[in-house]
Amino acid sequence: MNQHGVSRPEAISELLKIIENAWIDINEEMMRPTMISRDLVIRILNFACLYGVIYKYNDSYTQPECAKDSIIALYEDSIPI
């Protein structure tokens, strides 16, 4: 914000655009064949998804109570296969 002289909402909006473009790049790369094991790539992608959930709206890493609802939904309200 200080470097570019923009307001907080403008900075947040720009960061969200950067994140959205990064996910587009990740999804495109997932569709391409690679020499790396698909299982390893999926694990790395899952870590990226995890961090997306942890930091999407607030810092759930240092404030784990913020992620409580998401974790409960994941384990208690899971979708049956």
From TrEMBL:
InterPro entries hit by this protein: Isoprenoid_synthase_dom_sf
Gene3D superfamilies to which the protein is assigned, alphabetical: Farnesyl Diphosphate Synthase (1.10.600.10)
The organism's place on the tree of life at top rank: Eukaryota
Q: What is this protein called?
A: Terpene synthase
